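Re: [help] complex structure
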Amino acid sequence: MADVNITVDGKKVTAPAGTLLIEACKSAGIEVPSFCYYPNLSLQGACRMCLVKVEKMPKLQTACTTVIGEGMIVSTDTPEIHQARKGMVELLLGNHPLDCPVCDAGGECELQDMTFSYGAAESKYIDAKNHKEEQQWSPVVFFDRPRCILCYRCVRVCGEGMDVWALGVQNRGVSSIIAPNQDDHLDCEECGMCIDICPVGALTSGAYRYKTRPWEMKHVGTTCTHCADGCKTTLGVRRSDTGMEIVRGDNRDKSGINGDFLCIKGRYAFDFAHHEDRLTQPLIRKDGRLTPATWEEAFELIGKRFREICDQVGGHAIGVFGSNRTTNEENYLLQKFARVVLETNNIDHHRTADFPALAAALTGKPEITASMRDVFNAPAILLIGNDPTEQHPLLAWQIRNNVRLHRARLYVINSQPIKLRRQAASFIQIPEGSEGKLAAFLAGEDAAIDAITTEEVSRAAWITLRDKLRGEPNLVVVFGAEIRGADIASVAKLTASIQGAKVVCLGDYANSRGAADMGLYPDLLPGYHRVADTGKFHEEWATVPRAPGLTLPEMVEGAKAGSLKALYVVGANPVEQFTIDPFSFSNSFVVVQDMFLTETAVIADVVLPAANAYEKSGTFTNTCGDLQLVKKAGEVTGTKSDFEMIVRIAGAMGFDVRRLVPFGRGVGTDMGQSRGAQSGEADRHAVWLEANGLEPKMSSFDPMAILDEIQRLVPGYDVSRMNILAGNDQHTTLSSSGPGALHDSKLIMPAQDNLFSSGTLGRYSRTLNSVIENRHKQPAETEVAAD
Amino acid sequence: MADLVSHPDEVKVVSKRFGKSATNIDRYLELDGYKAVQKALGMQPDAIVNLVKDSGLRGRGGAGFNTGMKWSFVPKQSPKPKYILCNGDESEPGTCKDRLIFEHDPHSVIEGVVIAGIATGSHAGYIYIRGEYRYLLEIMQKAIKDAYARGFLGKNIFGSGYDFEVYWHGGAGAYEVGEESALMESLEGKRGIPRIRPPFPAVVGLWGGPTVINNAETLASVPHILLGGAEWFAKLGPPKNGGTRLFCLSGHLNRPGVYELPMGYNLKKMIYEVGGGISGGRKLKAVVPGGSSCPVLTADEIDVSMDFDSMMKAGTMLGSGGVVVVDETTCMVNFALRIMKFYQHESCGWCIPCREGTDWLKKTLTRFHHGGGVKKDIDNIQYLSENMLGRTFCPLGDAAAMPTISIVKKFRKEFEDHLEGKPCPFEKAGVTEPAAVLA
Amino acid sequence: MKFSDQFEARFSDMLTHYPTKRSVLVPTLLYAQDEVGYLSPDVIHEIAQRLDLTELEVSNVISYYSMLTTKPRGKFNVQVCTNIACMLRGGEELLDHCKTKLGIGHKGTTPDGTFSLEEVECIGACSWAPAAQVNYDFHENLTVEKMDKVLDEYRKN
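Output below.
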């Protein structure tokens, strides 16, 4: 768009035509205050704080609703304007309870800031304030009505942003009040966006309220540990008896791939970290019972047994099960541990999507995986399968807001009437299980049309749709786990056939993609490099077994048959996830690293208390392939990161850990593993490091050394380190990866989590559980016009 | 059914069919009904717009914008349908004129709507009547039905090949809906919150289509202009203030009622001659010249011409034609309070200054009138009103501020007489309960 | 939820008047209230369903308009105007009289459910003040005595 020149406070400002005056001012570093204006939400003109003087206009104008015009001369700070704003603040404070000393928002309240700026310090009123009682709308949403200034941000973000429409305005005039959809409580997705966007302390979080003052927290920007979308989150942490407690989650600086967005899990479900059942000391089975032990005892025992098995039977008698929620560095380290230390390819993880097949299908193709940002900016999106509203809340947010703000065309094809159909330009329901045929048809295989032609959708309609899709340059194709194996090639073919089109494969957990990329497969090394093929990993590590190892079901069988002598489970609960008979492992030595005594941990011989992703550093790769930093925020004394435990076990086996973690090899910075939000951590590490004659400056427990190796060896991960460390997302590509592989589709088991569940983490989150209990009934989806 | 009055000075244009059973379509036809629309069908749209422009017809709802000019803002080509919206949400305190039009001459409104439609290239019109006027809505429903039955509405009206639909719509009690953009919201089934402008309704209005919104009296004037000509209409009033107005005389008058007088009629004459003077021979204290939103005039200020421009010069507004006459026995603090109570009740609550300002003013005035006032309250009432003036989302804030500012300014002494626990000097002892004096 | 045939006929007719379903909402609510007496949860649910709205949206609209109510009222709703034109001619005294006579306050309902009382804003009867509306009927140029007669007439019905 053409540029428009205006003058603001004597300063020349140029902005594209159509820019709002308030934004044009912002771009020139001139802040025009506002309560009701919020970028990307509909305009209100309600708070009257952004009044400015525009020459030739008789009255003061609202900068939030004024579109700039050529030659416009604007003043944003005259005595008249100052008085107008001061008057507004005075009026707001009139009925406001002024309970700042006990208000959650105190210290980060826009009304406080505005009062401070405009000096509305004198009370002009002597009459009684209007008062209304506080309400609790849900376990996590409280509404302190008198604090509300009626900026309508909550109403808009819930409706326009979330497409939930659970909030409205009741009554009129001074009685106007924000009201939830069920009389005095909410029936909604509990995303907490309303709380986050509230400029004052009217909407507060049940998880955070009255816990602390904002300035008493440290704020750590990291990546959410729940679903595979990888929202950036800022964790507010505070010192507690047992380390550092996480007391709040929000995306404080509105940066990253999610901007304003967080879902219920990202916002509240960090409390699993402080669950009373959290393991805080190693347990060793003695006389049939898991008994507390010291770390030294535990590592010694594991090292000894693993060494014995390796020496006596060979590493192939040990199975390793990795995690979807450990960092890339830990995953990489774990498979390297299996291959280099144990010398086995017996490594697998809970697969929720067929990334290897996608890697295979994209071999030799240009870089056609879409980032989460692409989903928000693409002119058109095709969504096949999955229900992102439930399983990929951020992806759903990006899709909805792309449609709303950029008028993107959304095509939804699903066996269920998923909620995103409301934003769809076209929604087509297909028989369950026919997603593969659909992909084949869209990729050009005309014979597949029979399987998807129904009474509702004719052949002609399918052909029309396919033609339409082919005419959608820069389309982003998003598909769920319904499409696996060879069918993925169809999706890749469709994508490659459309100019500029890109693809997203949906996995389920925070680092499912990372687990796949880092080679937690019996037949694939990091970067989908087949174990049988020689290459840089073989050169670098010297010893890599070339024969594919055992898959998880094969390991279970091996344990039953007695050929698998030991199982090393890191951050996973296969017994529960795959409903495995726990007695299968009766004769195996089972080591489990976990936060809780899970179904798998209870049958273990050694259980090591693990730190979770909020308590360590490293990187995560979201389902789109966006690489992001994970930073240490919380800490629970008595736990260790999986990274450290793997290194210690290798050390206890008598392995030279320098071969496992190439620390000191060109690495100059510390990712912060040894310097979390708290101090003193580094000292504890130093004890072990010094005892082992290691350089304490760059420790072997610091994931940076492994990130270095990952970036060197894993295709697609050679992204800007500076950007990663600065907290920015960097898109990795699959197209330059290895050949991938076609796996048995049965090995893929989607997590089936919804908005309110999150595997083990969800089970131990009191907040999530309280919300689930509070939802008396599954909300009937109401049909309202989506706009 | 409201009583009709008359006075020799009246010039009956809009009211010419009042009391003549013109709700009956045959009777309406006998009284020159539907001639104007047929004439319009033979004219170029621009010619109609210019005719109305030249007639000097200005919005009778209160803002006084040139009607023809308003029509000319409607784009000729529009991808979305264009609409005519008749504002019959008459709610301005002191105003009861549209009520008489709907009651006595509903077809004239329909005819005005159709002519506005022809002039702007629209094919549908809505007549919005406030919810309290249920009997008028029924009269209008019948009138529309009768007009359809005659082929005056619907497809191919009067065999002209032009299609025009007219629909009725009823409100449900909200003064704010009288504001044109809030009126559209209400018609669309929403809360009556005004819209951000620009875009103006003439460009983006009902359901996104260009929309002309005119007051019922304005539209009822249009057929007369078509038949009588622009010049005739313009000359009824002073320059740029064409035609007549239905003035609703109320309050302390001997002969209150709705009178149709030429624009520019002298206010003093209106009060003392047309309205028969102050009841009981008492003295005049103040006049609300055009509905409660207008600054009040004192007894010394009433020798003015009742047209838009002269009233503006006199520091007030012609407004909606509601002339409320206040005699010497009235407490102006109480009068200001009653006005503020109204605006506080009717504020839509959307923007801060109006929502909070009207409430604090009502609280302060209530306490003040009841003897709990302190000296700084007087300045504070002024300060609060000035903070609202020109800064609210829609004109309701101004409407609340303007009369208040004028009353405080012109009757400051009455405020001072209420101070320090003194009972209201105008009320019988014991009527108002003394409020505690707050420090 | 069952409405009268007349309601249904008018409702279907009104739906054809507008490009969006929602546009019928305000008049429909008032007509529904006329039949049921108030906008009960059932009525809200029914109308929301018919117009593809949430109940929240419908109740947000209801709470905006002063004629709409979610609480039952008496058979005859006596609405006394006290706005300026009526106030100057005894509107407030008239309201006080009604309060005493009916034994109820603003927005109150007599125990027998016959009358409700409401102080209302300008009803467009300024030149015939003071005025009151009983349900939709206007009563103008009232005095205390005339008001008594009016109320007595309704009581008889």
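Chain C has two domains: 5-64, 76-156.
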